[in-house]
Amino acid sequence: MQVPAPVEYERALSVEEAIALLVKHGSESRLIAGGHSLLPMMKLRLARPEVVIDINPLAGALSYVRREGDELAIGAMTRHADLLASALVSEHAPIIAEAERVIADPVVRNRGTVGGSLCQADPAEDLSAVFAALGATVRIRGPRGERSVDIDSFHTGPYTTVVEPDEILTEVRVRIHPGASSAYEKVERRVGDWAIAAAGAMLQVSGAAITSARIGLAAVGAEAFRAPRAEALLSGKEGSPELFAAAGAEAGRECNPHSDQRGPEDYKRHLVSVLTERALSRAYARASGGAAR
Questions:
Q1: Are residues 173 and 72 in contact, defined by beta-carbon separation less than 8 angstroms?
Q2: Among candidates 167, 177, 183, which has minimal Cα distance to 21?
Q3: pTM above 0.70, yes or no
């Protein structure tokens, strides 16, 4: 039987108390909300914190999806199921809703949180690719105050982020761009599994021309979950099947997948090419006012 090592338990009733507990217990403490990433790692003893700090009471303060000016504000304690159910998300960032439909299963979506997913920093994490495509900003609070970090600088490597041991991620912000839309594509071995490869796209369109493009990739070793060379092919050009195929092919070339139990490297590169092309096509159709399934 897989059993975690002995661990102490604390329960924070506010963000300030959570920060104070992190300061008190130091780097050997971990926050826990949904627990669907941390607990399995503890059972395998890949993670052995001395103290877990339960932040579920913070849901009242940090669980929300709301529009503030030209941004969507998403609290870090927002559950996946709440993102999926949000009309604001479906309207302004359909890529999020599409990703949430293929994240794990209802049990995980009912408990797992946005902040937990981002801070786990799994290379195959769907929301990391999604927020990379959207150009999100995250807000982090700690004993030294609050700071904002661009999503491109948030991840520092597999399972690591810029969040310090005494800090807590509190919010994700996504800019609402006029004439923009997005889409997400994923291939997995079975329903609810981690991606073999996944691609998301956000395009801003004026007339028929693409004025801004961002691509997010998951599970294929893309630096900062991005495909910058593929993005550069799109800017300033009129959308077309040929253009999206070329950008997809470039995304397949510039990612860095590894052969493993989910498939060989060349298969994953092929998937990236196809999925990127599909995501771009659907995002462009939406941004242009056309239908996109």
A1: yes
A2: 167
A3: yes
